[in-house]
C-alpha cells in the first residue's frame, strides 16, 4: 500500500502497558520510536488515541451519558498531550488539535491547519473525538482520516487482525488476510464500530488491522508491511 499520509488509531489501554491504567512511559516511548522511523522516511502521521486507560463513557452508567462521554473526550485530550510530549522527547515536532477550545493547551482543529502541520513534518494528534457525545473514538478516527485525506487508517489492536469470530473464545476462528469493508459491515465483524465502518465504506477509506503487541508492528504497518488484515474500501 502507498502510504504518504496515514491516521494511526491507538487504544488508551495501549498507552498503559501492563499497568492497565494511566501511562507506562516505556511503552509510549516504544510507540514513539516506531512512529519516528516512518516520519523520518517522509510519511505524514496523524494519531487518535482512545481514553480507556482513564475512562470509558459507555461504562459510566451511574451518570448522564452526555457527561460520561464528555469525560471520555477529556481523557483523550490528556492522553494526546502526554504522548505528544514523549514524541517530542524522541525528536519529533507535534501539535495537538481538538474540535473544541481547551485554552492554550491545544489548537482548534481545521483541515487546513492539519495539512499545514503535516507539510511542516509534524505529527498531528487529534484529541477530543468528534466533540459530541454518543460517538466513539473509532468514529472520530474515521472522520479525521477522511477529512485529512489519509491513504489509510491503521488500527493497532489487542487482536492481530480481523477474524470471523472471537479468537479468544473460539480456537477455530479464521483470520482474514484481506476483507472488504462491505463484508465487515454485512457480517457485523468487530473491527471498528458500525458508524465508523459506514464512514469508511462511503468514503473509500481502507483500514489496516494489526497486533499492538507484535514486535515492530506499528513501524512495519507504517511501512506497508502488513501481517494482520487489510480491509479494502473498494
UniProtKB/TrEMBL annotation:
At the top level, the lineage of the source is Bacteria
What are the protein's UniProt keywords? ATP-binding, Cytoplasm, Kinase, Nucleotide-binding, Pyrimidine biosynthesis, Transferase
Among Pfam families, the record links this protein to: AA_kinase
Q: Does the keyword Cytoplasm apply?
A: yes
- Per UniProt, the enzyme's principal EC class comes to transferase
Cellular location(s): Cytoplasm
What GO molecular function terms would the record report?
ATP binding; UMP kinase activity
Q: What is its main location?
A: cytoplasm
**Name of the protein in its database record:** Uridylate kinase
Amino acid at each position: 500500500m502507498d502510504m504518504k499520509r496515514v491516521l494511526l488509531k491507538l487504544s488508551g489501554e495501549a498507552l498503559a502497558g501492563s499497568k492497565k491504567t494511566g501511562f507506562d512511559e516505556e511503552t509510549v516511548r516504544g510507540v514513539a520510536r516506531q512512529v519516528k522511523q516512518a516520519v523520518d522516511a517522509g510519511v505524514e502521521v496523524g494519531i487518535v488515541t482512545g481514553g480507556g486507560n482513564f475512562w470509558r463513557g459507555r461504562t459510566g452508567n451511574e451518570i448522564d451519558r452526555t457527561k460520561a462521554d464528555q469525560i471520555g473526550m477529556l481523557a483523550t485530550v490528556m492522553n494526546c498531550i502526554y504522548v505528544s510530549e514523549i514524541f517530542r522527547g524522541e525528536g519529533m515536532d507535534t501539535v495537538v488539535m481538538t474540535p473544541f477550545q481547551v485554552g492554550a493547551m491545544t489548537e482548534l482543529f481545521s483541515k487546513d491547519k492539519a495539512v499545514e502541520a503535516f507539510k511542516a513534518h509534524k505529527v498531528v494528534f487529534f484529541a477530543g473525538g468528534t466533540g459530541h457525545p454518543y460517538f466513539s473514538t473509532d468514529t472520530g478516527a474515521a472522520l479525521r482520516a477522511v477529512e485529512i485525506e489519509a491513504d489509510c487508517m491503521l488500527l493497532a489492536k489487542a487482536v492481530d487482525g480481523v477474524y470471523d469470530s472471537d479468537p479468544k473464545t473460539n480456537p477455530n476462528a479464521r483470520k482474514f488476510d484481506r476483507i472488504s469493508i462491505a463484508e465487515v459491515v454485512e457480517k457485523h465483524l468487530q473491527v471498528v464500530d458500525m458508524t465508523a465502518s459506514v464512514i469508511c465504506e462511503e468514503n473509500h477509506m481502507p483500514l489496516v488491522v494489526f497486533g499492538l503487541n507484535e514486535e515492530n508492528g506499528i513501524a512495519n504497518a507504517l511501512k506497508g508491511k502488513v501481517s494482520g488484515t487489510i480491509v479494502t474500501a473498494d
